[in-house]
Amino acid sequence: MVVAASLAAAFALADPLDASTPPWTKLRRPLHLPRVSAEAKCPVSRVDRRVDWEPINIFGTSGIGRGPVYPGLGGTGGRLTATPDTQYGGTWAGGKVFWYLKPSYRGRVLIRGRRLDNRQRLGFNGRALPNRELRIEPGQTVFWQGQPPGSRGVPSSVRVRTPGCYGVQIDGTTFSRVVVFTVEIAR
Questions:
Q1: Which tens digits make up the pLDDT trace of 98-137?
Q2: So where are the chain's domains?
């Protein structure tokens, strides 16, 4: 009995990402966000022109990056305008971002990020303190006018403490993408 238990424990340690591993662990890959010097121009991601954004009608009018998951930043291309936190009165500011998921991708999505030109955190939603990551489940969506069949959309608040150059890493089961944008804080 002891030998069987020891063998079972050894096999469990040999493959830490087996079927019993929580699904988010599999998506939590090491971050590969670039560093940007404080003097450098922020390398903002471009709008994906392969997508016909007008009929899709998302908040932000278009998504930036290579997809299949795109942040819509409010019609400003690669700039997010955040406003100070009036609900909790903290030091965080936030701006609405609509995450558009193409119909071709049906799996989970894990989004994490940070400031690229300084050591500042980026968060999502939350209360007085934001969450460190945004998780999008299969089938999770809001519905909107112009939504393509099978696509998904998830609104969120992206929260920061200071303006600057920020990046997010968007991890799905079949891809890992980096999207870069600037944040300004309205006063």
A1: 999 999 999 999 999 999 999 999 999 998 999 999 999 9
A2: 2-185
Give which of 107, 82, 93 is closest to 27, Cα–Cα. 107
Per cent of the chain over pLDDT 70 is: 88
> Percent of the chain at pLDDT above 90?
78
The rounded distance, in Å, linking the Cα atoms of 121 and 112 is 10
Q: How far is CA 121 from the centre of its chain?
A: 13
Give the sign of the dihedral formed by CA 48, CA 50, CA 54, CA 56.
Answer: negative
Amino acid at the residue 115:
R
Residue 180, strand partner residues: 167
For residue 90, the one-letter residue type is G
Q: 184 CB contacts (<8 Å, ≥6 apart)? A: 79, 80, 81, 82, 163
Look up residue 105 and give its DSSP letter: -
- Residue 168 bridge partners (DSSP): 113, 179
Closest CA to 78 of 152, 171, 158, 166: 166
